[in-house]
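User: Run a structure prediction on this.
Assistant: Running it now.
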Amino acid sequence: MRIVELNKRDFDDFAFNHPYRSYYQTSQYGTLMSKHGFSSLYIGLEDNGHIIAASLILVKSAIFNINVGYSPRGYLIDFNDYPLLEQFTFLLKEYLASKRITYLIIDPHITHLERDKNGKPLENGQNGVNISESLKRMGYEHNGFNLYFENLKPRWNMILKSRAPKEIIFNSFDKITRTKVRNSLRKGVEVFKGNKDDLRLFYQMINRKQNRKFDYYLDMYDIFGKFNMFDVYFARINTEVFLKNSKLLYEHESAKNAKLNEQLQRMITDSKAKAKLLNKKIESDRLLNSYKNDIVYGTKLYRDRKYIVIACNAVVTYGDEVFFLIDGINFKFKNFNANHLLKWKVIEHYKDAGFTKFNFNGITGDFTKKNKYYGLYEFKKGFNTTVTEYIGEYVLVVNRVKYNAFKNIEPVKNLIISSMKKS
């Protein structure tokens, strides 16, 4: 067996058919990161003329001749085959040394513990405990089973997997989520797919959430877009529809409210029946007031413009998976629940195209309500997603002397890690 360098096509052919595939292990991702401060290596483990393992390795150069390697969601190898993994590691260290790489970070696409939507481990669920221990025995240093966003990629994700029809998928959502999707439609929110000209608007809406430059998404659109792997979606208020629907709902509720008022005027001796009727009247009054406010608000919005873009989502598709990369929301219009509708419409669209896995991206492993990220978890949980906990980050040290010196220069280390988190 030996380590060989692969061309992009051969690497992609192997990667696409691997059970641990991820868009992070593609030539598209490698090409993107090559435009943003990294160099890319595509390597394979060859045995009798066949590639049996592979990895994209991103390399970041720092001062003092420190070169850091990163295999995002790598490797593409059978981690349960201990002898194979051990041999690959041995040969890889030699290869990395020849490239003057000081150490390599990996964060395998391996589930540590399979969990339910509430974060509780499943009794007979898949787990990567043995794999984690194997890596440690081979000399990999584990960065720990952390709970928050300490790693280069989130260790905790929320994922929806389903081969069911889209109607069943929608009905599997929490009641609150379904209600918010319907409410968004009632308020005239529409979803549309953007194009390259819309990227500037997209970037303005997500800019507060991250520190990447606009060119990153422009390059991503071009590189991934060539292979139909990247799309941007927007949600907008159709103010004309919002106003029209609000008027119709007000008229309908007004007639209903009048009937309830008539019934209350009658002599009702049954106290329980009267209390029930009174509660219905109070709820109807509340709805009437809400629809009236919507009419006033809708009239103002419609006077200004017909369409108002209030949310956006970028998605990456690869294999059978749709990956929600990043979203942006105008919180001035948060009551329109646009992000709920956006997520559902994206799921609906790609479900029709045959996709079965929807990755809602990162959360934390702290499921207590005091956690400041609890709302993020609650939002994603509403789509009947389950918690996926990966085994985390491991460091393979190639040059121990340089690595130890690097670890002790905290500002330099933090600068490199910060730049790599942008990957």
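DSSP finds 14 helices and 15 strands in the chain.
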